[in-house]
Amino acid sequence: KNCEYFIPLAGGFQINNAALAIDAVHILKNEFNLKDEFIVRGIKNTVHKCRFEIFNNVNEKTAIIDGAHNVQGILAFLSSLKTYFLNQKITFVFGMLNDKGYGECVRIAGKYKNAKIIVTNVPSLRQTDGGAVYNEVKKYTADCEYIPDYKTAIIKAANGGNKVFAIFGSLYLAGAARTFIGNRELNAHCLNNITN
């Protein structure tokens, strides 16, 4: 326990998660003959995709992808946004499955200061009506629009005036967005829109 740990994950909640994991491993340490150096290295090399994952230089912007899809997750995500991007205007690309009871999540996201919200459909067979999520968002902010296709919504955010955009509301959306951004498909679309 007298070790120094480097936690490579962004987001305040990740520190708590890492501390819990370290405590759990220390309880089991003697039973499995684990050395402190293995624990330190394991924490240092931890990767958690789609959990406050930051991508820099996405069309000269910063993109954050998070799979937050419930009240606790969205509160933690927005808290981390405030910590890392205080007072910056952010574009949200937001989509939730209709069966998630999205009302309270939408209320929380819709009241976030300095945010433009682009509501989109979640690329999942479980999505029934992204327009219903959009109608709920409109109750809390006028700075919103509905773009059904998630790729088109991400392209709009990447081409917009804000230097930061965040994609969240569903693990399905986060995973698809990560693939879209990670394959550099997004940068190609942004360049085509600028040159055309």
- Rounded to the nearest angstrom, the distance between the terminal CA atoms is 58 Å
The best one-word shape is elongated
Largest sheet: 6 strands, mixed
The radius of gyration computed from the alpha-carbon positions, rounded to a whole number of angstroms, is 18 Å
Uncertain stretches of 5 or more adjacent residues: none
Tally of helical segments: 8
**Beta-strand proportion:** 5-15%
* Largest sheet strand order: 1-2-6-3-4-5
Class from helix and strand fractions: alpha/beta
Using DSSP, what is the number of strands?
A: 6
Characterize the quaternary organization of these chains: single chain
Verbal overview:
The chain contains eight helices and six strands; from the N terminus they run H-H-E-E-H-E-H-E-H-E-H-E-H-H. By secondary structure, the chain is an alpha/beta fold. Strands 1-2-6-3-4-5 form a six-stranded mixed beta sheet.
Secondary structure layout:
Elements: H1 12-28, H2 36-44, E1 53-58, E2 61-65, H3 71-84, E3 90-94, H4 103-110, E4 115-119, H5 130-137, E5 144-146, H6 150-159, E6 164-168, H7 171-182, H8 185-195
Parallel strand pairs: 2-6, 3-4, 3-6, 4-5
Antiparallel strand pairs: 1-2
Give the gist of this structure:
The chain is built from 8 helices and 6 strands.
Descriptors for this entry?
196 residues, 8 helices, 6-stranded mixed sheet, alpha/beta, 6 strands, single chain
